[in-house]
């Protein structure tokens, strides 16, 4: 038969270990809901052990332990609730159904401003049916009613030839492309590559889209080869990544400071949204003060909404952002960690250095380099990215449609 005193001491030691685990889970707000569920399982297992050995535990101690265990469960439930990152409100009211008093289904009304932006991002109504929750034909009709689209040409036109045969001329139904001449396109590509010499086809396409030019990929590729010549390494470069999951846009921002230009007293600070990889704020500064990082954060927050959580390293320049987040959203809303685990921003630094940071190691001006940062962010936010089991989407596309589909976070409706 086990020694009751040894069993009691084991239970006491187990309680101390359990308490430390729960406190750590609460303060770090672990990203994986399965980890929170695992901690809850440990708490319930310990409660079962305490109830089984109730006869050997003093009454006051037993009462204290059970009360504390219930408090631990409440803490873990609260952590799981915060981790789920519930949207600020229901999904944005983009589509309304209005009863007209006539037979049939209610009329579908769509917010004009949202529809205009969505058509610019995705090009046509076919890809908007799922996020809008209505038929693509309905979206097409509303776009025509609002003057956001031109009536389509007939699918084909028949023409009788002199020999009596009938030929059909088909018209395209894809989005209208830019009427840029080859020379104009070459000049634009030349200007982009002169500023960002390591731009590839996708970044060039994103920069063209940011200027309102929708150009077929084949023309961009031909222009790139004409302007730049055949590159040494050309083709798809596959990047293997671990699965990354957050609830939606503005659920988690990553930020850091890049010191590649510190020799010339320049530091690049950036914030990137974890869901969409959208650059929400970027600035080139001549210092690494906490006040500067806070200013960059508020610029991004005022433009794109407040993130629910922010992740950064242990640098003292991050203190003010951490203070603001914890005052606004509570303990755990700022996640401290090593830079090697801050994957979104660390991956972004490669593109920053590769596309414009490296160039400025030999030649730069304060205002010009900051303009480069903004122009690069514009191209990055509009360039299409290859996603697993999904169509290509730009960071701006994913950011906006996440607010529509996953619910709004951090924005004022």
Written description of the protein model:
The chain is of the alpha+beta class. Helices cover 49% and strands 13% of the residues. It has 4 domains: 81 residues; 83 residues, no CATH class; 47 residues; 154 residues, 2-Layer Sandwich (Nucleotidyltransferase, domain 5). It contains 14 helices and 11 strands. Strands 7-6-5-8-9 form a 5-stranded mixed sheet, with helices on both faces. A two-stranded antiparallel sheet has the order 1-2. It is globular, with a radius of gyration of 28 Å. The termini are far apart. The relative contact order is 0.11.
Order of helices and strands: HHHEEHHHEEHHHEEEHEHEHHEEH
CATH superfamily of the largest domain: Ribonuclease H-like superfamily/Ribonuclease H
The main sheet comes to: 5 strands, mixed
Given as residue ranges, the uncertain stretches (5+ residues, pLDDT < 50) are none
CATH structural class of the largest domain: Alpha Beta
CATH topology tier name of the largest domain: Nucleotidyltransferase, domain 5
> Termini distance?
66 Å
The outline comes out as globular
Number of domains: 4
* Whole-number mean pLDDT: 83
InterPro entries: Integrase_cat-core (IPR001584), Integrase_dom_put (IPR058913), RNaseH-like_sf (IPR012337), RNaseH_sf (IPR036397)
Pfam families: rva_4 (PF24764)
Organism: Paramarasmius palmivorus
Protein name: Integrase catalytic domain-containing protein
